[in-house]
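Pipeline run #58 for the internal structure catalog. This entry was flagged by the ingest filter as a single-chain record with no existing model, so it goes straight to prediction. Upstream metadata was stripped on purpose; only the residue string is passed forward. Reviewer on rotation: M.T. Logging verbosity set to normal.
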Amino acid sequence: MQQRARILIIEDEEDIANAVADRLRSEGHSVYLAFDGVSGVESFKAIKPDLVVLDLLLPGMSGHEVCKVIQTEQRTPVLMLTALDDETDVLVGLKLGADDYVTKPFSPRELAARVEAVLRRSTAQHDRRGMLECCDLEIDIDTRRVSRDGSEIHLTPTEFDLLLGLAKANGAVLTREDLLMSVWGYPDGSGARTVDSHIRSVRRKLGNHVIRTVHGVGYAIGDDRAA
């Protein structure tokens, strides 16, 4: 069973915040609420939660700004909530360090499942297997760090697991369903956009040459000449 966690929900729609909080509390988590960006940042600094559920559209201080502050303070898993079916907003959030996102409307049960998956990824312990060299990158599995020419490149836990899964496949093509199961822990076909968004975020950080698109199939490690 997943270890119980301290979870901060930053969401200005109180009905949504309370419904999500009730669901997460029913699973044993300690849940804290904030209803705007400024109080969300203050609560984050005071509580130091294990995970933040963060709405992007907040009064006073945007969710993107809040995410940036959170990741500056300490590396904390962030699950974004967005009513905007806009890939640009999602990519900005992922670039700032968010781990996953859920588009409104959603069920509290669905969000709780996503929370559990993010917590599993962020707390996963890996066997010591040394370094992997991939393209021009060095991937340290034990410390979960990625570097190029000695300079570390920050990846979120989800981005790291996505890159590691592709690197371990050693050039073999992985479908979106393969990646959803191995990285996110669920096979939901509607999650294909989640995979695509994270791939784009990884490419922004590491360069297009690291991940190759195999159109109609999925992704593989290596040069993407079609990107």
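catalog note: The chain has two domains: 6-123, 131-221.
catalog note: The chain has a mean pLDDT of 84.
status: ready for reviewer M.T.
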